[in-house]
Amino acid sequence: MLMKAVRFEEYGGVDVLKVADVSTPEPGPGQVLVHVKAAGINPGEAKIRDGLLHSRWPATFPSGQGSDLAGLVAKTGPGVTGFSAGDEVIGYTDNRASQAEYVVVEAQNLTAKPAGLPWEVAGALFVAGATAYAAVRPAGSVPSPSSWPGWPARPWSGWPARCTTTG
User: Fold this and answer.
1) pLDDT greater than 60 at residue 151
2) Annotated domain spans of the chain
3) Closest CA to 30 of 104, 126, 103
């Protein structure tokens, strides 16, 4: 089955972005297929697309775009517990793929969408929220996310180069 996804085939500004028909991904073990309702873009992701971070995070063309997402669980892969088809979720992907109709996300990178939160806000919340947490956590004034209801145990796994903290 085909879906629509934002892609770019060369570095540049927003003018290099195109909407393309691509195969709908299938979730593997520990993964969730999310039907995306809203997706955000962060400044670092725009810099990746521009080619300004090529030496650290080179794009492989064609490349997708986006980390933050909010949507509905469409399907779960083997071994996934805690999510079912139809659940409203927010999260992120490290695969530059959230600006698409569907995206496969590691289950540990998802959490329930807060009730009443508009999709447009939810779709831009996760990376900014986890970054803010990483910025204040070393000060010791914020409890560990493991004590927050519904927050994944490791909301910034895979981010050491993006969110470096001490302590």
Assistant:
1) no
2) 25-46+64-147
3) 104
